[in-house]
TrEMBL record:
EC number(s) reported in the record: 6.2.1.71
MF term (GO), any: 2,3-dihydroxybenzoate--[aryl-carrier protein] ligase
Alphabetical UniProt keywords: Ligase
A Pfam family reported for this protein in Swiss-Prot or TrEMBL: AMP-binding_C
GO biological process, alphabetically ordered: siderophore biosynthetic process
Cited PANTHER family: LONG-CHAIN-FATTY-ACID--COA LIGASE (PTHR43767), NONRIBOSOMAL PEPTIDE SYNTHASE PES1 (EUROFUNG)-RELATED (PTHR43767:SF1)
Family in the record: Belongs to the ATP-dependent AMP-binding enzyme family.
The name this protein goes by in its record: 2,3-dihydroxybenzoate-AMP ligase
InterPro entries found in the cross-reference section: AMP-bd_C, AMP-bd_C_sf, AMP-binding_CS, AMP-dep_synth/lig_dom, ATP-dep_AMP-bd_enzyme, DHB_AMP_lig
Domain AMP-binding enzyme C-terminal: residue ranges: 436-513
Taxonomic placement: Bacteria, Bacillati, Actinomycetota, Actinomycetes, Micromonosporales
Span of domain AMP-dependent synthetase/ligase: 35-385
Pathway: Siderophore biosynthesis
Amino acid sequence: MLTDFTPWPDATAQRYRAAGYWQGETFSGWLHGLAARFGERVAVVDGARRWSYAALNEAASRTAGAFEDLGVSRGDRVVVQLPNIGEFLPIVLGLFRLGALPVFTLPSHRRAEIGHIAAATDAVAYVHPGVWERFDHHRLADEVRPLAPSLRHVVTPADLADGKPFDGTDVSAGDVAFLQLSGGSTGLPKLIPRTHDDYLYSIRASAEICRLSSDTVYLVALPIAHNFTMSSPGVLGVLHAGGRVVTCPAPSPAVAFPLIAAERVTMTALVPPLAMVWLDSAASSDADLSSLQLLQVGGARLSDEAAARVEPVLGCALQQVFGMAEGLVNYTRPDDPPALVVGTQGRPISPDDEIRIVDASDREVPAGEVGHLLTRGPYTIRGYYRAPEHNAVAFTADGFYRTGDLVRQLPSGHLVVEGRAKDQINRGGEKIAAEEVENQLLAHPAVLDASVVAVPDPVLGERTCAYLILRPAAPSLTAGQVRAFVRSRGLAAYKIPDRVEFVDAFPQTAVGKISKARLRRREGLS
Ligand code: J2J
């Protein structure tokens, strides 16, 4: 029904159904099933508030009803920008039930991102938390409205609480359930359409690989709308197993450790810089972390040294997770030997995840050598939303997604992430498309040319450095003025260049293009 979605070829789809990956189940049916199985068990905890499975199901129906009353209907897009609060789940599950598509954004996104995303999806509604962490999203909404004429409703969770229960059955499992944001390497963020069938498969399989059960208590420390937190196995995997989801308003040890003790949390997921902060704090903290059984780390490369400290310091197992919102997710397995858990980023979920590791001309590299990772499979998209030109380069003719990651594969199937070919900065798990920031910098009247690259950072792994060439007659600029300019353009704070350097020329490649590799090494600068 959504023409902006690239379907899997019919024969492939049939194969995925026959193999039992795609079970023809929608999120709405799935949630009814959970309510029937787990009824009064606690599903979601936010501070003193608790939702049972039955209550979550009911709240999802009421939210669906509230959206329906607003005139939102099946297939409509709704921008969701919510922090880690309990209401996230009934709102998202309610939209799934209605067949409207949540478009996930992060709490840190600002006018540039929300405006573009709302416009690019012709979103009819924007759901935000009101004032959150001293930031007023009502004001943001006012700035976004002129950018996205399709927006008819701006609502907060309180506006959605008491609709009349809606329980339509119109949605089908092959429909797109939501749009997720891509880490991106182009000027504007790309959107990822995921179907009920494909996402539920990744959730069921992830819950099994991670051995979740109704005893699992999962702390939502990373942003809840991120693909890792949602589905690897994340909040949806934990619900699938009948476990308990505990929202955590901030990932710092000061906030998270007392919650772990109070709720007897058994697992959580972090990006590497946070894992390192937790390791340092736990060593000197008297917080009771004894309930913790599993720490998942992913989103960026975890150093072998930090990986080796997890078990001795936190007293729980480590799982490395190398995933992407486009699909493919790799996990180290609970019974993998320690060397694989510490030294690799895991192996794919599915026996039908196809992996190719190729050189710059798409020829497979010899086994064990580093190359570009290409993948296709039962939960990896075949195209971005409304992006035919980008799709032509981001996917091969036979449907493999070009991840932009440089990896090598061990005989066991485990992948080691060795680097990145895409023009992106991975700032401690937060992805920044260099081109997006460069375009904003180029809007400054004094800037002749801009190039944004990653520089190594001991804490975040990478930070951003913007190299700028100023126009000859332009008045000089300070780094602070450049940063303030980017902020004034409405970009999320994590995309504002950490460092700004003024140069007279950029290093060139042999064919006269800017050499970002040399720029990262600070070669050829003048
Ligand atoms: C190195 N690089 C990694 C890792 C992701 C689970 C976990 C993470 C994501 C995610 C996700 C990495 N080591 N362990 O969606 O479901 C980098 C790669 C990858 C990109 C994807 C999930 N884990 N990466 O991080 O869509 O470069 O998804 O292609 O945000 O993050 O980013 P994103």
